[in-house]
Amino acid sequence: MAIDLLPNDCSNPVAALAFDYGTQRIGVAFGQSISASAKSVTVLKAKDGIPDWDQIEKLLEEWKPDCCVVGLPYNLDGSESELLMRAVKFANRIDGRFNIRCYGMDERLSSKAAIEQVMEDEGSKKKTAIDDIAAQIILENWFTEYNTQV
Fold first, then answer.
1. What number of helices (H) and strands (E) belong to the chain?
2. pTM, rounded to two decimals
3. How far apart are the C-alpha atoms of 79 and 104, rounded to whole Å?
4. Which of 67, 69, 107, 112 has its CA 20 to 30 A from that of 5?
């Protein structure tokens, strides 16, 4: 796998845009390391894993993150999933197209946690995609790792 999990220097606060990569939908969240908090932003449609790159560019211009974090879909036993290499390729394409550093974060159980969070919420999102909430959880977990390196 050719994607770093954390920067070499974690002493500076960072703002990050996170992606929960999928072949049909890509969840997006934004957050910052000072509070280790993130918020869901949107869910992008993808066609066989290929996003509308103009939408990605607009998100990068709007949120101006210092870096991006892409969820790495390992199998529950820690082995590589079929989707893992596609997620790494997605991260590398963001880096190559937009010259913004991408990091990876193990996303095992983030979708399950997102579903549980939506089910606890009595309102609005029960029948919508949970991919943006999964991206939020991925980013919050990454910030936890980031902040422990300081």
1. 4, 6
2. 0.87
3. 15
4. 112
3-state secondary structure of 36: coil
pLDDT tens, residue by residue, 69-81: 999 998 888 888 8
User: Mind listing the pLDDT tens digit for each residue in 29-57?
Assistant: 999 999 999 999 999 999 999 999 999 99
Which residues form the domain of 85? 15-148
On whether residue 1 sits in a domain, the answer given is no
H or E element in which residue 44 lies: strand 37-47
The answer to the question of residue 9 being in a domain is no
* Within a domain: 3: no
Q: Return the amino acid letter for 3.
A: I
Cβ atoms of 38 and 30 within 8 Å: the answer is yes
Residue 8 is assigned to a structural domain of this protein: no
